[in-house]
Write a structure and sequence with these properties.
By secondary structure, the protein is of the alpha/beta class. The protein has helices at about 1-10, 80-95, 105-120, 135-150, 170-195, 210-215, 220-240, 255-260, 265-275, 290-295, and strands at about 55, 60, 75, 95-100, 125-130, 155, 200-205, 245-250, 305-310. It has one domain (about 1-310): NAD(P)-binding Rossmann-like Domain (Rossmann fold). The strands form two sheets. A seven-stranded parallel sheet has the order 5-4-3-6-7-8-9, with helices on both faces. Helix 2 packs parallel to helix 3 (about 105-120) and helix 5 (about 170-195) runs parallel beside helix 7 (about 220-240).
Length: about 325
């Protein structure tokens, strides 16, 4: 009752149809067999995440591009859905060609992104490859270079998360999947991409507010996000003399498929009730995309080794 009461208080503010919606929790996508770790499919979510519209005083309006990435070529992992989808579409609106990396099971979501990116006159390379496999990461780079001739931006966005409130419930299968996707995949793809980056290019990694706050149910996930933060800071110093910038974005609770794939419905409700940000709602992917545009563009030319905290008002240091 305490969790439900907290949730009702957190979600008490009704949203009108022209503003970001109050989240209504659907049945989780997480399978009943905990040994089977699912992928997140955005098209099945209710309500659907908002990936292109910005909230203003007068309501929701489409993102307003300004040609900040004209001629750039980007790789975006997890680009089929959630934050990655928003980044891919906003990059295309800003003038960039994008290669999106996703799992084969996410083909339906990826096709929608392809349709939207090409509608803005940009190329969209679809790469249904698992980044936890080292050879796939080299293939991603090779295919992108073959298609676009260059790589200017790498967005390490793909991650998996499965909430377990008892460390003893984290199986070796789960631990391996989380480590190999979030750490190995991020490292393999970054290592393969760096030789092809030049002055003015950038690497952006999606981390999380989780390693800063130490939420109890995210032990293995928090380990990986701390690793990504460490990589961002060290690699930024390594690449700064070459004029290549390395930064991170640390989201708070954002309405994406990783929410549903990570826990059952009861756990999702409990997490939201206990971790709700001061702004009083989930963030939407569309509210994260502009941060990635900023960090990839010349507007962020003197920023490296840093983290943008887009979390709805939770004050964090570091």
């Amino acid at each position: 009752m305490e969790v439900i009461s907290s949730l009702e208080k957190f979600m008490s503010s009704e949203s009108s149809s022209d503003h970001y919606p109050t989240v209504v929790f659907p049945v989780s996508q997480r399978p009943s067999d905990p040994k089977d770790y699912s992928v997140g499919i955005e098209s099945t979510m209710r309500p659907l995440p908002e990936y292109i519209k910005q909230e203003t005083e007068g309501g929701l309006r489409h993102y307003n591009p300004a040609g900040k990435l004209v001629g750039k070529k980007a790789i975006i992992t997890g680009g089929d859905s959630g934050i990655g989808r928003s980044v891919a579409i906003m990059y295309a609106m800003e003038g960039a060609d994008v290669a999106i990396v996703y799992l084969p099971e996410e083909e339906g979501d990826a096709q929608l992104v392809h349709q939207l990116v090409t509608s803005y006159g940009r190329k969209c390379l679809l790469l249904p490859l698992d980044i936890s496999i080292e050879s796939n990461c080299q293939k991603i780079v090779d295919e992108t270079l073959k298609e676009f001739g260059a790589i200017n931006i790498l967005v390490n966005n793909a991650s998996v998360c499965y909430i377990q409130n008892d460390v003893q419930d984290i199986t070796t299968v789960q631990f391996d999947k989380v480590m190999k996707t979030n750490i190995y995949g991020t490292f393999f793809l970054t290592r393969a991409t760096v030789p092809h980056l030049h002055r003015g290019d950038s690497i952006i990694t999606t981390i999380s507010n989780v390693p800063y706050l130490g939420y109890a149910g995210f032990v293995d996930y928090a380990m990986t996000k701390n690793a990504q933060l460490g990589m961002t800071r060290s690699l930024s110093n390594q690449l700064a003399p070459k004029g290549i910038r390395v930064n991170a974005v640390a989201p708070g609770p954002i309405w994406t498929p990783i929410q549903e794939m990570g826990a059952d419905q009861k756990t999702l409700i409990g997490v939201l009730a206990s971790q709700g940000p001061p702004m009083g709602r989930y963030g939407q992917p569309a509210e994260l995309g502009p941060a990635y545009v900023f960090l990839a563009s010349s507007d962020g030319s003197f920023i490296t080794g840093q983290t943008i905290h887009a979390n709805g008002g939770t004050v964090l240091n570091g």
